[in-house]
Amino acid sequence: MSSILSQKLKVALIQLAGSKPDKSANLQRAAKFIEKALIDQPDTKIVVLPECFNSPYAVDKFREYSEIITPDSMSIKFLSNLASKFNIYLIGGSIPELDPSTDKIYNTSIVFDNRGKLIGTHRKAHLFDVDIPNGITFKESETLSSGDNATTLDTKFGKIGLGICYDMRFPELAMLSARKGAFAMIYPSAFNTVTGPMHWHLLARSRAVDNQIYTMLCSPARDNNSSYKAYGHSLVVNPRGDIIAEAGEGEEIIYAELDPNEIDTFRQGVPVTKQRRFDIYPDVNK
Ligand SMILES: O=C(O)CCC(=O)C(=O)O
What we know:
InterPro entries: C-N_Hydrolase, C-N_Hydrolase_sf, Nit1/2_C-N_Hydrolase, UPF0012_CS. This is CN hydrolase domain-containing protein. The longest helix is centred in the N-terminal third of the chain and has 18 residues, at 23-40. The chain has a single domain (9-275), classed as Carbon-nitrogen hydrolase (Nitrilase/N-carbamoyl-D-aminoacid amidohydrolase, 4-Layer Sandwich), CATH 3.60.110.10. It is built from seven helices and 14 strands. It is α/β, with parallel strands linked by helices. It starts with 8 loop residues before the first strand and ends in an 11-residue tail after the last helix. The strands form three sheets. It has a six-stranded mixed β-sheet with strand order 5-4-3-2-1-14. A six-stranded mixed β-sheet has the order 8-9-10-11-12-13, with helices on one face. The protein has a two-stranded antiparallel sheet with strand order 6-7. Helix 1 (23-40) packs parallel to helix 3. The protein has helices at residues 23-40, 62-65, 74-86, 171-179, 195-211, 260-269, 272-275; strands at residues 9-15, 44-48, 89-99, 104-112, 118-123, 129-132, 136-139, 151-155, 158-162, 182-188, 214-218, 235-237, 243-246, 252-258. The structure holds 2-oxoglutaric acid. Residues 51, 128, 165-166, 169, 190-192, 195 line the site of 2-oxoglutaric acid.
């Protein structure tokens, strides 16, 4: 039986320093770290960047930094060139996207294949609108609109599912991608120092164990001078729920090797993918 992951796969998650006001400097910094990843680990095949890696993570800034997604827009062109130059699949974190037909702004992840082709986008579907007393208040929906799709993409290694940050709290997206055969859920993210310690590891491990897939969460590094303090701790979790790579709080790259055997062995040992009782939950997607 062939695996949902076609080969062993080296991935790199770049926990970039929090973005600065200069968008092109943020892009250059991403390029520098992608190059470093490929020098350190030349067999890296997938590289992941954080949520809003080239714009401030602030509701009043999204429109100013937004781009229409076309082959010539600044970030698309830049990331496409990096993906082809380094022969990698690049999960280009997320950027604020302007849809010119509606004038709406989305928080959108952009994904390139190793030839630099934009193979898919995911608009954050669940907006981070929370109000935790003495904790954090944030309302993305003040300026952002939510995407309307669950996203699963084909790569030459198998399928991947995409979500952005708060999306990982909704198990349905991961479940849908896993049912379509995804070997991993990838979440460009930017949790904070309030909800990060509560739920970051738990959610990453839960989505992995629920679906017996890999999960990858890529955060910006913590900046204690910023109004939004990202949690850091970028993670890779295996299908058994073990953390196989974890960053600290500063700027760094973490690497992991995904292994089809890990998926297959664990799925054989604990065969939940074959034991589901759709007869008693018929309204759940098979
Ligand atoms: O779910 C959380 O606790 C954090 C989510 C978040 O920071 C985001 O969606 O950007």
